[in-house]
Design a protein that fits this description.
The protein is an alpha/beta fold and about 500 residues long. Helix content is about 35%, strand content about 20%. The chain has 15 helices and 21 strands. A hairpin with a 2-residue loop joins strand 2 (about 15-20) and strand 3. It starts with 5 loop residues before the first strand and ends in a 5-residue tail after the last helix.
Length: about 500
């Protein structure tokens, strides 16, 4: 019998199913591991399981996850992102059938903005946690262990006397260094290819398509440069990590913060390299020079559109002329420059799209890597909230947004195919468009399909006679760690 207080299962993962193989891209699940560390500091016992390591040849079936969760603790918590929310809900139903006495908790960013609807429709989910879990998660598990009411636990949705109860979110954690390190001892660290570090939580910008900033209430909090570098030192010395990805969108929040981090890292002499996201309006030549000098080998920009009308409409905060100047400077400093674009906005005319396509080709010509992504209409985004009552969402399983790939669909010839054995997942999605709008589109015939074919024609998606190049890749994939340019930078003369 499992003596732990909680079995916490990570379902934040990326699986891509090709015609002849299932590719798993394993990254350290930082969010659940920070929660695990907080629970253990409070004296609670955590049975942590990372579903990325599921040995089943067919992991994307509810029975496989239930098998993976054999002999659980009395509380089972599932953490997922939006792409695996449908699968997670169906797997939770299987868990309920096998373990009827267990308390099933759903967490992570997947249920954001649809928590109440989930509890109303699926009686096998007991509790949904929202907001930062390091405070509320501890209080929740302790209350469940003690059998005390949940009304005073922050950050919860649950049922009581036939009604859905929502408790206020916990106060944001301002001192991120107080979190300590994630519970990496729960992992076989050598299994993971992606070595992520969080340097901040939250972004103050109001991009209308963004699903991340609303999760944090558009208010950022930061770690200290010394704390970040100490974590890098530990991972390098203990696990031999030489290449890091700063996962958060707001790494470049100010010149002063970037300069302090670069000075702190350089002073250690650590032989490491790193990648980071940056905003066009916050990165200039001096900032990028300092980053490159401190070992940054890749910088990532969310450009999103080549049309100033679309940039203004989505509140991006810069012009395409500014983006062109910054990216042109960036390719002089870094072995790789990634530029993310979004296509398929419902208000994006073909003229707007042509401007975006022209800009993508221009960036490709100067050496930047292009990562196009189909607009993802997640419930918490301003765009979805604006359009949800004005349009009929349309579903096409051959054209899912890159960030919504689940591992059930088969990728072939630049398109997706619904696998017959996984058709039940797509049926479930179509039954609940308001819960899973990220899988749907606005105006397939006039807005989506013509633009997709133009992107294929110009080599931004694979086709029968053209492979996706190193410069042109779908946004769902993070860049591989063994890319020749980056490895070359790791071993360049003079280091």
């Amino acid at each position: 019998m499992n003596q732990a207080d909680i079995t916490l299962i990570n379902l934040n993962m990326l699986l891509i199913r090709y015609v002849d193989a299932l590719e798993r891209e394993m990254h350290v699940p930082l969010g659940p591991l920070y929660l695990t560390a907080a629970l253990e500091r409070a004296g609670l016992s955590v049975d942590f399981r990372d579903y990325q390591t599921c040995p089943d040849e067919e992991p994307m079936l509810p029975t496989a996850l239930a098998d993976f969760c054999a002999n659980p603790a009395p509380v089972i918590a599932l953490s997922c992102m939006a792409n695996l929310l449908p699968f997670t809900l169906l797997a939770a139903k299987e868990l309920r059938q096998r373990y009827p006495e267990a308390t099933l908790v759903l967490g992570g960013v997947g249920p954001k903005a649809v928590e109440r609807e989930i509890l109303e429709r699926f009686d096998w989910i007991d509790i949904i946690a929202h907001g930062e879990g390091e405070v509320s998660g501890v209080e929740l598990v302790q209350a469940l262990k003690d059998g005390t009411p949940l009304h005073h636990v922050p950050g919860l949705f649950f049922r009581h006397d036939g009604a859905i109860v929502e408790t206020p979110e916990a106060e944001r954690i301002e001192d991120l260094e107080a979190l300590g390190l994630p519970a990496l001892d729960k992992l076989d660290y050598n299994l993971y290819a992606g070595h992520n570090i969080i340097t901040s939580r939250g972004c103050p910008y109001e991009c209308t398509f963004c699903s991340v900033a609303p999760v944090w209430g558009r208010k950022p909090h930061f770690r200290t440069p010394a704390g970040i570098v100490n974590e890098m030192r530990m991972l390098h010395e203990k696990h031999g990590v030489e290449l890091f990805l700063f996962q958060d969108e707001f790494f470049v929040s100010s010149k002063e913060r970037v300069y302090e981090f670069c000075r702190t890292l350089k002073a250690t002499g650590l032989p490491v390299r790193w990648k980071a996201f940056a905003r066009v309006n916050l990165a200039d030549a001096d900032v990028m020079a300092a980053m490159a000098d401190a070992g940054c080998v890749e910088i990532r920009f969310g450009i999103e559109s080549g049309s100033n009308r679309i940039l203004e409409r989505t509140r991006k905060g810069f012009t395409i002329e500014e983006a062109m100047a910054v990216v042109s400077e960036a390719v002089l400093h870094f072995p790789r420059v990634d530029t993310f674009f979004i296509w398929g906005f419902p208000f994006e005319t073909m003229e707007d799209f042509h401007q975006t396509l022209f800009q993508m080709i221009s960036f490709r010509l100067i050496g930047a890597r292009i990562l196009p992504s189909l607009l993802c209409l997640l419930p918490q985004t301003d765009i979805y909230q604006e359009y949800k009552d004005k349009v009929t969402l349309e579903f096409d399983p051959t054209l899912l947004p890159e960030y919504m790939l689940t591992g059930h669909e088969v990728c072939d010839d630049g398109r997706l195919q619904a696998s017959p054995e996984h058709q039940f997942i797509f049926d479930f999605i179509q039954e609940h468009p308001d819960l899973f709008p990220g899988f749907f589109h606005i105006d397939l015939e006039e807005n989506i399909r013509p633009k997709f074919e133009m992107l294929r024609e110009h080599g931004f998606y694979a086709s029968k006679d053209r492979e996706v190049s190193q410069q042109d890749s779908c946004g769902a994939h993070s860049p591989r760690l063994d890319d020749e340019q980056v490895i070359g930078a790791l071993t360049r003369p003079g280091d």
